Amino acid sequence: MGENSTDRRAVVVEDDADMRILLVRTLQRHGFDVAEADTGADGLRLVREHSPDLVTLDLNLPDLDGTEVCRRLREFSNAYVVMITGRADEIDELMGLQIGADDYISKPFSPRTVQARIEAMFRRPRPATRPAAPPPAVVLEAAPAPTAPAATAPSLVAAAPSPAAPDGERMAHGPLVVDVDARQVFVDDEELLLTRTEFDLLALMVGSPRRVWTREMLLRSVWGDEWASDEHLVEVHVGNLRRKLGDRGRNPRFIRTVRGVGYGMVAAPS
Does residue 112 share a domain with residue 79? Predict the structure, then answer.
């Protein structure tokens, strides 16, 4: 663990010693107490022991495949997970997998890139408690690193929850109910298991059901300004969200596509 005790913990799972040192030192500089492992089995053990807020996970480990490690840790941990991949041709595959990761970073990368990506994740709201079996999440696409010098970069501090709705509010849209405080979603009284990003997108749109959201607006609201040019992120996550909601074909039940603009909510039945 790091020299200074903090209330933010991270686990780095990486078999390459040089890469592991880079990740550990980068996270320690930004206030994380860090544990490290060079195998998937040890990584899972450390996640159980330390209940970290963040896990960086190499895709190619000597014992367990990184995607399998991610699936297993999602059975007991709600930590943010960043997959580390060394091959560009793995990115498309990761994009389509429901493995429980929140983002990915391609090797080689700079400490500033790691900082920027984690900054973006920690600005999103997260549950106050770790559920026993949190839902899986989609691996996200890469985003450009910021141009600001690393020495003047802001610290990694979680921001306040999204302003989509006040804490404790339950928003209903026909048979769809969004419980903002509990971060739960129900359709026809059946709970849906959504990723953090899917929940944030849905809560934002249900909170303003008559509004048409451009992809850029959704990017800025959910991911932050530095992601504003990466509209494919919205398409991937909205597509996954719609599948979970049961929106198929040209007559969606909840989320409609506004051609050439973005997305909005289907009018709720009266």
Answer: yes
pLDDT in tens, 146-203: 444 333 333 333 333 333 444 457 899 999 999 998 889 999 999 998 877 888 899 9
Chain centroid to Cα 116, Å, comes to 14
Q: How far apart (Å, rounded) are the C-alpha atoms in residues 232 and 215?
A: 9
CA distance 173 to 177: 6
pTM higher than the cut 0.70: no
Which of 225, 224, 258, 219 is closest to 237 using CA atoms? 219
Mean pLDDT over the full length of the chain: 77
DSSP string over 63-77: SSBHHHHHHHHTTT-
Q: How many domains does the structure of the chain reveal?
A: 2
pLDDT digits (tens, 9 = 90+) for 93-104: 555 456 777 887
Give me the residue label for tokens 């159980």. Answer: 48
pLDDT tens per residue across span 113-134: 888 888 888 876 554 434 333 3
pLDDT recorded at residue 147 = 40
Is 155 contained in some domain?
Answer: no
Say whether both 129 and 201 belong to one domain. Answer: no
Instruction: Find the distance separating the first CA and the last CA of the chain, reported in whole Å.
Output: 56
Residue-range definition of the domain harbouring residue 226: 170-265
Would you say 121 and 139 are in contact if contact means Cβ atoms under 8 Å apart?
no
- CATH code of the domain containing 105: 3.40.50.2300
CATH of the domain at 238: 1.10.10.10
3-class DSSP state of 244:
helix
> HEC string of 109-141?
CCHHHHHHHHHHHHCCCCCCCCCCCCCCCCCCC
